[in-house]
Amino acid sequence: MSNSPTVSRVCLFRLANHIFALDIRFVREVVEVGSVSPIPLAPAEVLGLFSVRGGILPLVSLAALLGLADDAGSSRAVVVRHGERQAALAVSEVLGLETLEMSLTEGGIGVPATYVGGQVVWHGQRAPLLLVEELLGVLAQRVEGVRRGAAA
């Protein structure tokens, strides 16, 4: 694996006092979180369903999915999509879109390495680049596990 940097366009956001990045190829939009309807028997990471532009999306506690303590409620969410999977990820604050150098060096803030595809540096701070396909894949597995458990 090479550590030589490449340039990536990313969406930067704050979550649990850390800065993270998402590849904008997978970011659909940033939305205000309105009324959220809980889902019975949903995994703990799924906060519920809410309406976005006439469609219904699951709102996911990204902090819970990453195993981070979230110190504040989220009024914003980043809607992400990979293939047929789509969800809104609750974040503390959206910092903006940037074109930054990305390296494959892993960061060390306690996020499982399987979710991290590298890191970017923004204003002197390292920001792990989260892998949308991994996040949505793990979430789908957890939802399926709950379905199987409920059917048994």
Q: Approximately how much helix is present in the residues?
A: 10-25%
Looking across the biggest beta sheet, what order are the strands in? 1-2-10-9-8
Largest sheet: 5 strands, mixed, barrel
Global outline: globular
| Cα-based radius of gyration, to the nearest Å | 15 Å
SSE-based structural type:
alpha+beta
Low-confidence stretches: none
Give the SSE string: EEEEEHEEEEEH
Name the average pLDDT: 87
Give a count of the beta strands, DSSP E runs of length 2 or more: 10
Distance between the termini: 43 Å
Q: What portion of residues belong to β-strands? A: over 45%
Count of DSSP H/I helices: 2
What would you say this structure looks like, in words?
By secondary structure, the chain is α+β, with helices and mostly antiparallel strands. It is built from 2 helices and 10 strands, in the order βββββαβββββα. The protein has helices spanning 62-66, 132-151; strands at residues 6-15, 18-23, 27-32, 46-52, 55-61, 76-82, 85-91, 93-103, 116-122, 125-130. A 5-stranded mixed barrel has the order 1-2-10-9-8. Strand 4 and strand 5 form a beta hairpin. The longest helix is centred in the last third of the chain and has 20 residues, at 132-151. It is globular and about 45 Å long. The relative contact order is 0.25. The model has no long low-confidence stretch (mean pLDDT 87).
Please tag this protein with its features.
single chain, 152 residues, alpha+beta, 5-stranded mixed sheet, 2 helices, 16% helix, globular
